[in-house]
Specification:
Structural class: alpha+beta
Helix content: 10-25%
Shape: elongated
Distance between the termini: 90 Å
């Protein structure tokens, strides 16, 4: 600079420095804005992933609830499959386990059937003098609208909604006919029976959803792009034996009936049922054994839970695969996407569903995946 002012070179240098400062400021502002927008989207994705896995793990852990209810011959855990991996819910991809059915006992009614049910649509007369029956009501704590399970020691069970509860007669009436007319001694207790899986939404996304026994849909977590259920079961068949006195015992699943006990359905020989056979007087399991893997467990595929042996018997209404009693561990793999398409790039390995972000955009929020393992308490 001289008395006449700035030279051309000095003006160029000053302009260049000004441009550099402005560019740096713009870059810093863009970066700050990017962090301000992207970070909440990332945190929301992680939060939903955590909430989804915690919800499923909690439901599976609760499947053991009430497992001690019983009399040594039959209990909820030894008589009813508490967890059932399913292929899919409506609108979800199939071909593998992508959904769960979970049964758990809750506070409420508890009792035993006092008289044989007159038919599958008939009322269940409860033993009001029996020790499991709460003294609060003549219907052992059951109310209209309750969801309950009734089961016996031979593999019959039904989940139903109570349509009527008569304090005068000590009876509860199912809202719909059951699959079987239950005899005296069957157990009845209040439960929750829920299905968990993906349900497709109008915008093409999926929500992790709980479907109650009554059919109500309760969305739990939005933006879930995949759920995969890994089922692990005991490799070895259960050990079964007759006790010297009292009921027989089984390592898991239905206990063996008394050696000469007849089958009321006249399907199986005396002293046997869907899970127990006999060679002479010696009881044995109808389940086969697999080659044991780590921790004595093997992965169970859909075919393993759909090929029998069937309880209470093949062809009976509501028949279920006895291999469900093998279940010992459930792995849940959950994958969640960012909800706004502006943070998702092209569909592929990083994004299950493509978004509007360009291929080289710095604002990507990748799909997040988490796997949890839950032991099934029996």
């Amino acid at each position: 600079m001289n008395a006449r002012g700035f030279t051309l070179v000095e003006l160029l240098v000053a302009s260049l420095l000004t441009l550099l400062v402005v560019a740096a400021a713009v870059a810093m502002a863009a970066s700050a804005r990017q962090s301000f927008v992207v970070e909440p989207a990332t945190l929301d994705t992680v939060r939903r992933l955590r909430e989804g896995t915690e919800a499923l793990a909690g439901a599976l852990t609760g499947a053991g609830g009430g497992h001690a209810v019983g009399d040594g011959v039959s209990s909820l855990a030894s008589s009813v499959p508490l967890v059932r991996p399913m292929m899919s819910l409506a609108g979800a991809p199939g071909g593998r386990f992508t959904a769960l059915w979970v049964l758990r006992a809750i506070d409420g009614g508890l009792g035993r059937v006092a008289l044989p049910q007159p038919g599958p649509a008939g009322s269940l007369t409860l033993d009001r003098a029996g020790s499991p029956c709460p003294l609060t009501t003549a219907t052992c704590g059951f109310d209209v609208g309750d969801v309950a399970v009734v089961f016996d020691a031979r593999g019959h069970f039904d989940v139903f909604q109570v349509a009527n509860a008569s304090d005068v007669l000590g009876r509860i009436t199912p809202a719909a006919p059951l699959s079987y007319a239950y005899g005296a001694g069957a157990w009845v207790l209040t439960v929750r029976a829920d299905r968990f899986g993906l349900v497709r939404q109008a915008d093409g996304s999926h929500s992790l959803t709980r479907i109650t026994w009554a059919g109500a849909r309760e969305p739990m977590v939005d933006g879930v792009v995949d759920v995969e259920i890994g089922a692990w079961g005991r490799a070895l068949a259960p050990e079964v034996r007759d006790a010297a006195t009292g009921p027989g015992l089984a390592q898991y699943g239905l206990h063996p009936p008394e050696p000469r006990e007849p089958d009321p359905d006249r399907v199986f020989p005396d002293g046997t049922h869907c899970m127990v056979a006999r060679t002479g007087a010696v009881p044995s399991s109808r389940l086969g054994s697999y080659e044991p893997g780590a921790e004595g467990l093997v992965p169970l595929e859909p075919v393993d839970l759909s090929d029998g042996p069937w309880c209470p018997s093949a062809g009976s209404p509501g028949a279920w695969d006895a291999d469900l009693f093998r279940l010992s561990r459930i792995d849940v793999r959950l994958r969640v996407e960012v909800q706004s398409a502006e943070f998702r790039g092209p569909a592929g390995r990083l994004f299950t569903r493509g978004g509007t972000a360009s291929r080289n955009a710095p604002s990507w929020v990748l799909d997040r995946t988490l796997v949890v393992s839950v032991a099934i308490d029996r």
